[in-house]
Amino acid sequence: MRTTYQRILVGVDDSPDALLAFQYAVQQAKKDAAELVIVSVLEDDQMNVYQALNKDYVHGERDALIQHLQTYQHQAQAAGVADVQIMTATGEPGETIVKTVIPDVQPDILIIGSLAKHGITKHFGSQAAYMAKYAPISVLVIR
């Protein structure tokens, strides 16, 4: 039995595994004629207290992230995915995607890379494992 998805959520952070996850999600969305939602989380733990309190700084970081996500959006559209949305969130990536993004987007599946780009979260045992364990939907972890 083949599963067809109507809405696919893919998390991106520019790590090699996330780029593979994005490519896989694009191909799956194209094959299923599914909506593709691309999300990236602005990690507030990477900002110092002064940056976090500075609304102009946070707004600038979010604007830069949106602009970067638009490049992913254009790539997916160029590959033949008709319905591509982008979204940002702020917080701890795993928890934010599971508790906020998934309930808002209501995707059929979450596709993520196994390794993150920065810091402690670079190890599989953290963000990807958290999402695989706690997400209320199927999670595909790409290596």
Automatic annotation (TrEMBL):
Highest rank taxon of the organism: Bacteria
Segments passing through the bilayer: none
InterPro entries membership: Rossmann-like_a/b/a_fold (IPR014729), Universal_stress_UspA (IPR006015), UspA (IPR006016)
Signal sequence extent: none
Domain UspA: 5-143
Gene3D superfamilies for the chain: HUPs
Family: Belongs to the universal stress protein A family.
Protein name: Universal stress protein
Top-level taxonomy: Bacteria, Bacillati, Bacillota, Bacilli, Lactobacillales
